[in-house]
Amino acid sequence: MSKLDSKIPEGPIKDKWTNHKNHINVVNPANKRLIDVIVVGTGLAGGAASASLAEMGYNVKAFAYQDSPRRAHSIAAQGGINAAKNYQNDGDSDYRLFYDTVKGGDYRAREANVYRLAEVSGSIIDQCVAQGVPFARDYGGLLDNRSFGGVLVSRTFYAKGQTGQQLLLGAYSAMNRQIAKGKIAMYNRHEMLDVVVVDGKARGIIARDLITGKLERHSAHAVVIASGGYGNVFFLSTNAMGSNATAAWKIHKKGAYFANPCYTQIHPTCIPRSGDHQSKLTLMSESLRNDGRIWVPKHMKDVEAIRKGTKKPTDLSEDERDYYLERRYPAFGNLVPRDVASRAAKERCDAGYGVNATGEAVYLDFASAIIRYGKEKAHVTGLHNPTQEKIIELGKAVIESKYGNLFQMYEKIVDENPYETPMMIYPAVHYTMGGIWVDYNLQTTIPGCYAAGEANFSDHGANRLGASALMQGLADGYFVLPYTIGDYLAAEIRTGEIPTDLPEFVAAEKDVRDRIQTLMNIKGTKSVDHFHKRLGKVMWDKVGMARNEKGLKEAMDEIKQIREEFWKDVKIPGSAEAMNTELEKAGRVADFLELGELFAVDALHRNESCGGHFREESQTEEGEALRNDKDFAYVAAWEYTGNPREAKLHKEELTFNDIELKQRSYK
Amino acid sequence: MNLLLKIWRQQDANSKGKLVDYNVTGISPDSSFLEMLDVLNEQLVDKGEEPVVFDHDCREGICGMCSLFINGEAHGPDKGITTCQLHMRMFNDGDTIYIEPFRAAAMPVIKDLVVDRTGMDRIQQAGGYISVNTSGNTQDANALPIPKADADASFDAATCIGCGACIATCKNASAMLFLSAKVSQFALLPQGKVEAADRVKNMVRVMDEEGFGNCTNTGACEVECPKGISLDNIARMNREYLSAALAD
Ligand SMILES: Cc1cc2nc3c(=O)[nH]c(=O)nc-3n(C[C@H](O)[C@H](O)[C@H](O)COP(=O)(O)OP(=O)(O)OC[C@H]3O[C@@H](n4cnc5c(N)ncnc54)[C@H](O)[C@@H]3O)c2cc1C
Ligand code: SF4
Ligand code: FES
Predict the structure, then answer these.
(1) Which residue of A252, A655, B159, B177 lies most exposed, with the fewest beta carbons within 10 A?
(2) For residue B159, how far is its CA from the centre of ligand 1 (angstroms)?
């Protein structure tokens, strides 16, 4: 029997969240002190949730594998966070944010969740400003905005190219206030390695102290997983090196369904790969597409000359350049959504027009923005008849104030000055829209186990628009979970403290210990990275930006093969009773080797193209993604059965009452 | 590139450490310093030896996790960057490179190149926040205009990544630049003013209790800070501290 009850509240979409909140069980403050909640992860979702739950009175135990909550992966987010504030008076509204997100996600998200996200988005900005988050402001002292791919309004709030950092430091400071009060117990350098289920309910976790290697049992009345996304299954991605799927995968094995694993966002504006030594790919914020124009040479002879170094990009005149996004999508131009921009870049590079040595790069050019801003600045400062040099100088200063740190980052990595010569970019794996299936309350299919932020699947559908992950993480953490969890916890006030010597804890700890011992005892010949890189290559080649039936079937077999080899031949030096980073990696890669296969299974079964999932068999004559609503307007939620290949599919049908399903067009 | 590395190895907090020599070969000048260490570690694992443990995560210069003393400088030779942003093109083929952990009494070594920086968190917990509940019932964000110059200066202070380079570089191992960055972020904003005096007093108190040294204004911290946090913040913090102390 399927356990999929989305618990979407009754009533018109505008009132669902308010009605739901009015009817949710509330725990009395005195009783909250009797209740413990474990939060795994201290990124935006987990950090905000920990702070809010502690503030409400629950006892929180927060876990992170880094040495400080401030270093969670959310810190790296660059471009910004959306909110329907309509400060720019360009017609924004909750409805428009809702509409853009559902459309951007190719109609594969749950309407009710997305509307709630739009509804609380404004409060996020108010909250963060009150916490002292220094967002960018205009000269009138009011908050500044910019726009991101996939939308036509300016609703993105930002703090230079370091928005994630500032938002996370806000959540971290809210956590710190509660840590100081003793309401949050913070477990740094701890990795959750299993969830403990007692009488069908999540009652705790097994964690490994990464310094001593000791296994610990921690109990609670509810467990929140906010452990981020699984993009590192590709090895090369924009994710932090430690980002992993372990927490999500472990609860999946204990009964939480995993939804839409194949929905991966490939981000269009990353620094291209330079060689085999590379350990990660670096994102250049999408906000650059506001001012940068994307092009490749029109003529093959120019491509060749550029690759040989006999011509520079700046030598080509306007009409020798192919601004392919502006050409194909006149309405949105360079601001088409990420999946569209990524595929268009791949299409040009596959056709041979890539501009770097590997043929995998297109230009992102700021020359015209520099001139435009320079002229504007000259005007504003009362400078008449400025020289071209002066205009460029002024324009560069404006660009620097907007994107300075990104330009600097580019220069450090590529060793080229992007103010003088166009940047080179190429798509890279960035964000995973799939994740743990949750209902409207963010509860997984394990009672008492919740999932928030990138770890859950709920709000983005098959594609995430820019600046909406930060919004979702904070919405979940500050404003959704603290309410919805009350519904469950209200029945727990008489439970009392949960002992950690229950047989379920003993058994879970033993499982974890045995698995670690097995890994240590393999004593094979190849490093963990060796297997991770091989997995990544299969994922990128066959389960990456474009997928087809043949490739996916091969990928499933190849991943299984790599997994079997891994369990026979991995080599982990050192001891399990001490800090051992190879052992940490091994555990994570072992989980990726299972998740990767389920990923391919999901991609194979979904014989349509939608958002970040492009099935070559399903495209229009012009090569655009072709969705199939008749057969696939559902969430694919997979139940673990002991082998990823044989996972059982459950379908949550998606109904669209407030938005009409349309072919997505950005022309 | 081929290099000779002299790397600090230390089994755990209680063991004695020492510099150990390693040769690495075939390093691409385009790779980052951490990728160079990955190559070394891959070679060590192949030989069945324990890889060198170092902290890292984002590899984009923003999480503040990576922390290496390279040839006697925090985050190595280039300026305004973290270790993960350092590229091998900054070195020459055949170079000898010394790699050591960030050292300070208040940041003890955990293993090899990994140190314990939780003292920095405890300084923040002592007051590095504005006491507002996360209820969402705050006033509209635009109800309180803030001059752009103030917001920008606040942002500049707020960009500290908590890496600890300033502490490792300071001859007194003072955490003053780090602490002052947070104090300045809030001092430049209208929010959180009511608790400004307590904030600065409590944070300084905890800094002392944690065993970080005194600031004697030598300015070495500013030179090595990857985020360009300026000494002006220390001056601003001192003013805040003085007026808080006078009010007592
Ligand atoms: C370079 C980059 C730029 C981005 N820019 C933007 C942007 O401009 N706008 C936007 O909206 N989004 C952006 N994103 C996406 C966004 O940053 C993330 O989706 C979001 O921050 C995820 O937050 P989270 O709280 O869900 O998880 P994370 O921030 O990833 O946090 C995960 C937490 O879980 C912990 N953890 C994981 N596993 C375990 C375990 N087993 N045990 C214990 N702890 C564990 C980690 O320690 C960490 O604390 C960007 C992402 C990247 C990579
Ligand atoms: S002030 Fe600079 S050096 Fe010190 S912790 Fe912050 S970023 Fe690092
Ligand atoms: S690894 Fe994050 S700053 Fe270097």
Answers:
(1) A655
(2) 18
Distance of CA A183 to the CA centre of its chain: 29
Ligand showing the shortest atom-to-Cα distance for residue B157: 2
Residue B206 makes CB contacts below 8 A (sequence gap 6+) with B122, B123, B125, B126
**Considering CB atoms only, which of B51, B59, B140 is closest to A279?**
B59
Calpha distance B182→B197 (Å, rounded): 13
Chain B residues in contact with A73 by the CB 8 A cut-off are 57-58, 63
pLDDT tens-digit readout, A558-605: 999 999 999 999 999 999 999 999 999 999 999 999 999 999 999 999
Return the closest-CA partner of residue A216 out of A189, A243, A241, A198. A189
Residues A635-659: tens digit of each pLDDT: 999 999 999 999 999 999 999 999 9
Helix (H) or strand (E) holding A576: none
Phi-psi region of B211 (alpha: psi -120 to 50; beta: other; left: phi over 0): left
Q: How far apart are CA A29 and CA A182, in angstroms?
A: 16
Order across the sheet with A435-436: list the strands. Answer: A435-436, A258-259, A634-639, A648-653
pLDDT class for A2, splitting at 50, 70, 90? low
| C-alpha neighbours within 13 Å on the C-beta side of residue A438 | 32
Here the tokens at position A82 are: 């959306």
Coil/strand/helix, residue A428? strand
In DSSP terms, A8 is beta-bridged to none
A221, A489 contact by CB (below 8 A): yes
First-to-last CA distance in chain B? 61
Handedness of CA A149, A150, A154, A158 (dihedral sign): negative
The CA-atom distances, in angstroms, between A49 and each of A33, A38, A44, A166, A171 are 16, 10, 8, 17, 9
Place of tokens 């991609």: A603
Across-strand partners of A297? A321
Q: Ligand 3 atom closest to Cα of B61?
A: 3
